[in-house]
Amino acid sequence: MDFLVSSFASALRLIGSFSPDVVDAVGTSLSVSAGATVFAALFGIPLGLLVGLSDFPLKRMVVTLLNTLMAVPTVVVGLLVYGFLSRQGPLGVLGLLFTPTAIVIGGVLLAAPIVANYALASVRGADPRIVPTALTLGAGRFQAVGTLVGEIRFGILAAVIAGFGRVVSEVGVAMMLGGNIRGYTRTMTTAIALETSKGEFAFGMALGIVLMMVALIVNLFLNLLQQR
Amino acid sequence: MRNLEATFAILLLALAALPAAAGERLRVSTTTSTENSGLLAVLLPPFEKKFGCKVDVVAVGTGKALKLGEAGDVDVVFVHARTLEDKFVASGFGVNRRDVMYNDFVLLGPVDDPAGVGRTSSAPDAFRAIAAKGSPFISRGDESGTHQKEKEIWASAGIVPRGVWYLEAGQGMGEVVMMATQKRGYTLSDRGTYIAFRKKTDLVVLRQGDNNLWNPYGIIAVSPKRHPHVKYDLALKLIDFVTGPEGRALIAGFKVDGEPLFFVDGEGAQH
Hints:
The structure holds 2 protein chains of 2 kinds.
Chain A: H1 2-16, H2 20-53, H3 59-70, H4 74-85, H5 100-125, H6 130-136, H7 141-151, H8 153-169, H9 172-178, H10 188-197, H11 201-227
Chain B: H1 2-20, E1 25-31, H2 32-36, H3 39-51, E2 54-60, H4 62-70, E3 76-79, H5 82-90, E4 94-109, H6 123-133, E5 137-139, H7 145-157, E6 166-168, H8 173-183, E7 186-190, H9 191-197, E8 204-207, E9 214-222, H10 232-243, H11 245-253, E10 255-256, E11 259-260, E12 263-264
Parallel strand pairs in B: 1-2, 1-3, 5-6, 5-7
Antiparallel strand pairs in B: 3-9, 4-7, 4-8, 4-9, 4-12, 10-11
Helix pairs in contact in B: 6-7, 10-11
């Protein structure tokens, strides 16, 4: 028990001292996760709306596929993207392996299915009369969908937050595609893995606490938006 | 559909341009022992300052580090497995290999030494004692330089390690030392990692100083003939710096708890 308490105390001291290593890892984590979330939203929200609003053969299969993609292990996504980005791979000329961009690409693949599924679920949960009503009232197709998005905005917001949560908390993609380079691609999660491997329990714990605080702040923000 | 593909391609290119704008970056794959010991944090910043560049360090096992060089995903490899290094150069993947420094391997185990390896007379003998007793032995199991050395010693002991006592961790040296500490087992470690971890483990050195526990480190530039995109000029500058007077002084002066972790050779011989 002493071990845990003293580690916790030195973790708090480390956070208070704003050690550059902690600040760097937090900054990298937040920026790559934010970047990945933006792109995931750009792909995922329209995809979710499209699947939710249209009827087509094999729709159930597409939905099942989207659900399955949510559960793909992060290391599998990492492995796949690694194959593409390595110099031996088809996109090797871009030289993207072991850069923050590589983590963003992996993060998009992780988060987009989650965003799409959440968006799809909120479309299904919405009043089915919204779109037809808007159309009868003289709205165009895009306007009608816009009205729907306005109605389900909290669901969409939750979709984006969930996508962010998946990217900021995972370690497989960040480790394989970023390479855990100090001050460049070292994220909070890869830093925790490294510090634990070095036996620096307090440092790992400090980062863990920061990670939880970030999650708390993001969710407080969501809560605030929903109350308005 | 065309438009979508074009947009995607432009997006990727734009993303690729981002890191390039941040100044020249040299990518080095190295072993966990150089990174985890803290040596690189002392050795690299003066080089970065002198040449106005950034050195990105990817710390993995020696086997993986060399594979990254073969694939052209890094510009320089800095590793310790002489046989594999020579093969890497002979196959045309690397050029300009230089000796950098050395330390040695130590056999770690619990103080009470249940297998009695302290009474043996050589590393292979010690390994035979561990296998005979069936005491837990934690292997790196990751094709790292240390793992190569460990396999060599098993081979010269005439034993194929197998059984519930032989645990292949597949992790870095630090993790394995911590694992051996928790399991009250034996492991082979480079001295650098052991000294860096001495405060965190109660394992002690039970065998050291044998001829077959010698551990030299080499640095190799990835061949620009094989991979034209590598930053060969900057790679050579790093190699010259690390094996030159400045680098040698930094390595020799690097100490943990007042003890040097690595030693430089008499001459920066070229091979």
